[in-house]
Amino acid sequence: MEKRVFFKGWWLPALLVAPQLLISFVFFFYPSGQAIWNSLFLPDPFGLKTEFVGLDNFRFLLSDPYYLASFKTTVIFSTAVSVSSMALGLYLAALADRLIKGAGVYQTLLIWPYAIAPAIAGVLWLFMFNGNIGLASYYLKALGYEWNHTLKGDQAMFLVILASSWGRISYNFLFFLAGLQAIPKSIIEAAAIDGASFWKRFGTIVIPLLSPITFFLLVVNIVYAFFDTFGVIHTITSGGPEQSTTILVYKVFSDGFVSQDLGSSAAQSVILLVLVGILTVIQFKYIERKVHY
Amino acid sequence: MRTIKAIIASLALFAMFAGTSAQAKVEIQWWHAFGGRLGELLDEQVNKFNASQDKYTVVHTRKGNYSETLNAGIAAFRAGQHPNILMVFEVGTASLMAAKGAYVPMYQLMKDAGQRFNPNGFVSAVSGYYTTTDGKMLSMPYNSSTPVLWVNKDLMKKAGLDPEMDLSTWKRVGNALDAAKAKGIDMPFCTCWHSWVHLENFSAYHNIPFATKSNGFAGLDTELAFNSPVHIKHIQTLGKWAQEGKFKYMGRRNEAGKNFRAGECMLMTESSAGYAGIKKEAKFEFGIRHLPYYGATEAPQNTIIGGSSLWALSGKSKEENKATAAFLAFLSNTDIQAKWHQDTGYLGVTTAAAKATKKAGFYESNPGTDLAGIQMMRNKVTQNSKGLRLGSFDQIRGIIDEEMEGVYNGSKTAQVALDSAVKRGNVLLRRFERANK
Questions:
Q1: How far apart are CA B424 and CA A180, in angstroms?
Q2: Is the Cα torsion angle A221, A226, A232, A233 positive or negative in sign?
């Protein structure tokens, strides 16, 4: 049963939604409008003169093989980060849920990495895998494996995925644990009495009941991998080697703020805006249908 | 009671005077990219200036590395919050030159301020970089260096080599690396600033164009030309060394310097300004040599500079511009320049500073520190060895670095990589030309 509240007159509801509208306008509509407008121009870095170029910025981008490659990089990166951090988060949550003694200690320790800012997490992992002083690279070398992520694209990719997923595991763990604890014990016990094995129970009861949380985490993790991993990439690889870790958002930054090509950068923001819009529609239209609330 | 009154009165009087004198001082801002030892030396220069007179105060702020400083300056300019003086590294020179109206040309600044300033006092190989084709100096040279070969003599001995052996050509360097590898030396060769040393300076040194139109000095319609057979041969050699484990890639900027200072790398190509750090940290005997070349060209031409110059940004009051002029003139005086040269390994950018350093016997007691200067000024400059003036060059360097990484990790041949770098770089040059017509 839904509860509905009706207001008499219009000024009170208008006043109540005004702050939200204002925030949306200032932080969303105004900047997006500016990005769309700027994507049609080719300005010089200092903003002394600018030229209207129509869709040339987009043509320039779509003919750049490295820009197209960065789509693929983004897909690989965000899939790897979301899947690995969610799988590990779920695994750890399932273990912690069964703990009888010391659950609080384990839970606190597992949540800890989430408190670390992405850029700092990046620096921590960078230290461990640094070619000069890193412990991890030192032991890998002792095992006969040459580690040099400044030169090898796959190693660089692995490292940024590792660093980005690490803090994320805690976040996913927290939500999955809450989800697991919300599942009524009686259902699981009933299934156990009927002779269902652990995996059977997990697959037919726990996973479906966790699906709202899983869906929520999927959306949040993909958004994270798309936009919030900037700090990690910037500190570890700066998008290299050979742009093998340049995801779309990083390219917006490096073309706009490192190369001062604001026209191209604005065009990339517009493409990204459209892309994320499509992705959100797909997620809510198709994936959400399979979610049981 | 009376005494308290007197104290208050005198305090008020004092505050009034202090207030007026603070107001009378003109304060100017300088944004730069120097931290660590270089930052301390820069701070010393500013303090000296502030103490030397009572009309002006210079406030300096570090804004990150070279690229970050330039970007901070540009962003601030768009917002109208820019400093009076901005440090711009040589790669950003063309971008500033093209932005007419964003800066006050140096000759104009000095003239308007009535400041005595002699642009001919600078070494022409340095000032040429920052001067228009019709001889007007636009920015003031600050720190300039050129690449040299650094030698770890202890490792040379360990490799069974004579530490004083001839390393003037890349072929001889190659032989030394073979010997070092055979003796199990882990990192026979490493380098900093790949594009700057192995393509930009390489071109000037062999007197071949890096880009058409005199490397961009003669017009914005320049095109990159660093995919000639000589360039390809050199980059292919580096790629081969990397595959054979004789050359280890440590990063795009000066990351390899750490390995050299730690005594791991036998031979390193790096800026002459690596001197300050190496002298401080190296626990082995080191030597400085000229940058090697290919014996096929008779004798090497000259190398070109890297480093930064100081730009006076526009939109400031006449009083502030006067302060800027006074400070920049102060920086170019011989004592300051000579000290800077000797402390850092940067070149003595004024002729007087180089002379004073020689007279003080610095080169004799620090052998090798004069090589950079000699190497830069050994010949009359040609249109290939004057320097580079290319738009979007920070970005183009990024492209070159990317493509060279492909050669080092064996995924590309030098031919493919350099062709691709030229093609991608030219797209950016055209875009820059269009934006700055």
A1: 53
A2: positive
Parts of chain B with a pLDDT under 70: 1-23, 296-298
List residues in chain B touching A: CB distance below 8 A: 67, 71, 74-75, 77-78, 95, 98-102, 248-252, 255, 258-259, 262, 392, 394-395, 398, 401-403, 405-406, 408-409, 411, 424, 427, 431, 434-437
Contacts of A95 (CB under 8 A, 6+ apart): none
User: Given strand B265-271, what is the order of strands in its sheet?
Assistant: B187-191, B265-271, B147-152, B286-289
Confidence of residue A2 (pLDDT cuts 50, 70, 90): low
**How many contacts, defined by CB atoms under 8 Å, are there between A and B?**
83
Question: Least CB-CB distance to B394: which of A42, A48, A259?
Answer: A259
For residue A243, the chain B residue with the least C-alpha distance is B402
Chain A: residue whose CA lies nearest to B75: A46
Of A60, A131, A260, the CB nearest to B74: A260
**Residue A260 C-alpha, separation from nearest chain B C-alpha, in angstroms:** 8
Q: Which of A4, A17, A149, A198 is nearest to B255 (CA)?
A: A149
Confidence at residue A293, expressed as pLDDT on a 0 to 100 scale: 62
Helix residue spans in A183-255 (DSSP H):
185-193, 198-201, 207-223, 230-236, 248-253
* Residue ranges of domains in chain B: 2-144+306-359, 147-303+380-435
A interface with B, Cβ–Cβ below 8 Å: 42-48, 51, 60, 64, 66, 131-132, 148, 150-153, 240-243, 254-255, 257-261
Task: Using an 8 Å CB-CB cutoff, list chain A residues near B436.
Answer: 44
Does A258 contact B398 at a Cβ distance shorter than 8 Å? Answer: yes
Identify which of A48, A132, A259 has the shortest CB distance to residue B395.
A259
CATH architecture of B147-303+380-435: 3-Layer(aba) Sandwich (3.40)
Return the CATH number of the domain spanning residue range B2-144+306-359: 3.40.190.10
Q: Which CATH superfamily is domain A49-290 in?
A: MetI-like (1.10.3720.10)
Q: Is the peptide bond before A241 cis (omega within 30 degrees of 0)?
A: yes
The structure tokens listed for A213 are: 């949380």
Judged by CB atoms closer than 8 Å, whether chains meet at A260 and B95 is answered as: yes
CA-to-CA separations, B334 to A89, A234, B114, B341, B346, in angstroms, rounded: 65, 41, 20, 10, 14
Residue A131 with chain B: CB contacts under 8 Å: 250
Domains B2-144+306-359 and B147-303+380-435 share a fold: yes
Interface ipTM: 0.72
Which residue has 């004592």 as its token pair? Answer: B335
Domain boundaries, chain A: 49-290
Name the residue among B293, B187, B196, B194 with its Cα closest to residue B247: B187
pLDDT per position as a tens digit, A232-276: 999 998 887 888 899 999 999 988 887 788 899 999 999 999 998
Across the interface, of B250, B406, B437, the residue whose CB is closest to A242 is B406
Closest CA–CA distance from residue B159 to any residue of chain A (Å): 22
Please report the pLDDT score of residue B19 as a whole number. 47
Q: In this predicted model, what pLDDT tens digit does every residue of B17-35 receive, in sequence order?
A: 544 444 578 999 999 999 8
Could you write out the DSSP letters of every residue in B325-357? HHHHHHHTSHHHHHHHHHHH-----BHHHHHHH
Q: How far is A254 from A136, CA to CA, in rounded Å? A: 29
Residues whose CB falls within 8 Å of the CB of residue A40, separated by 6 or more in sequence, listed in order: A52, A53, A54, A55, A57
Q: What is the pLDDT of residues A72-120, one digit of tens each?
A: 999 999 999 999 999 999 999 998 888 778 888 888 898 899 988 888 9
Choose the mutation target among B241, B396, B409, B430 for the interface with A, i.e. most A CBs under 10 Å.
B409
